[in-house]
Write a structure and sequence with these properties.
The protein has helices spanning 2-41, 43-48, 77-92, 121-130, 171-174, 188-200, 202-209, 237-241, 248-262, 282-286, and strands at residues 55-60, 62-63, 72-73, 96-101, 111-114, 134-137, 147-150, 153-155, 162-169, 180-185, 214-220, 234-235. The protein is an alpha/beta fold. It has one domain (42-263, 276-286). Helices cover 42% and strands 19% of the residues. It is built from ten helices and twelve strands. The longest helix has 40 residues, at 2-41.
Length: 289
């Protein structure tokens, strides 16, 4: 009887020890799988968001300088929401964000720039230097309209249909130490739409361009507010840069990825909803980003 009890005790102890070891192994394997999935999920953001070591520098719009005065920080509510979208990207990458104004004359290795050429001098300088196919003429008078020249196409944004842009320039394009990412549109809500699109579709943009320089156009509807945010983009890289900056290998990879996407059931175009929508704030609609 004594030997039988001792044998039973050993079996119970072995089962308890085995259960503890199994639980520890399961926890370790689960943690590793979660880390791998998180890195895969954020692969697009990691490739698209410029960063330097543990930092992400974000340049926000500033008030245009008047004669005899310095440029001052200035953001609308929608541009602040665009900044929030970019900060979420930095948090997903576990990077520390540095928020600057274009008035600060930033000098960082890689920069995310929010807002167009009128209110962000950093965006204006990069468009002028590296994007010969994209020219933006701001309103000349109080009743004038912005005119955008994209290659041979002329765009006149309106509140019922406007445009936003996401332009990524690699270090090989700019000749600088790090890449630059420009996110802007005609209205502040357009800039917010572009930032939101980047955060939600980073992996899609990454697999289409594989980390090279690219430019995409988004068609937005400011009158619909956030309901007018786009769900697709148009590649305008050749028109903006004058050439396709991707290597032959990466163009083939993008074609294979696009072929796989086209085989999946697509989503139909969403028609405008039949009921009234809240308009963006007057500040955001009256001011070009």
């Amino acid at each position: 009887m004594g030997n039988s009890s001792s044998l039973m005790d050993q079996l119970m102890n072995n089962q308890i020890s085995g259960g503890i070891v199994s639980s520890i192994c399961f926890a370790l394997i689960s943690s590793i799988c979660l880390l791998v999935l998180q890195r895969m999920r954020n692969a697009g953001l990691r490739a698209l968001i410029p960063r330097s070591d543990s930092d992400v520098a974000v340049v926000c719009p500033g008030q245009p300088a008047q004669p005899g005065s310095a440029e001052a920080p200035s953001m609308t509510t929608d541009e602040a929401m665009a900044l929030t979208e970019v900060l979420q990207c930095a948090a997903a990458l576990k990077k520390h964000p540095w928020v600057l104004s274009s008035a600060d004359k930033p000098r960082h290795a890689g920069i995310v720039s929010l807002g167009g050429k009128v209110y962000n001098s950093f965006t204006a300088a990069n468009l002028s230097a590296f994007c010969p196919g994209l020219s933006i003429e701001p309103p000349s008078g109080q009743d004038g309209d912005t005119v955008i020249f994209l290659g041979r196409t002329t765009i006149r944004p309106k509140e019922d249909e406007s445009v936003a842009f996401i332009i990524r320039m690699s270090s090989s394009t700019t000749g600088c130490q790090g890449p630059a990412l420009l996110i802007f549109g005609e209205y502040g809500s357009d800039t917010c739409a572009a930032a939101c699109y980047l955060r939600k579709n980073a992996n899609r943009l990454y697999h289409e361009f594989w980390g090279d320089s690219f430019a995409v156009k988004l068609v937005t509807r400011p009158q619909l507010g956030h309901q007018g945010f786009p769900d697709r983009h148009e590649d305008i890289s050749v028109a903006v840069f004058g050439e396709d900056r991707r290597s032959r290998k990466r163009r083939i990879l993008a074609w294979i990825y696009g072929l796989g996407r086209n085989r999946r059931p697509g989503r139909p175009d969403r028609p405008p909803l039949p009921f009234p929508h809240p308009l963006p704030s007057t500040e955001s609609r009256d001011r070009a980003a």
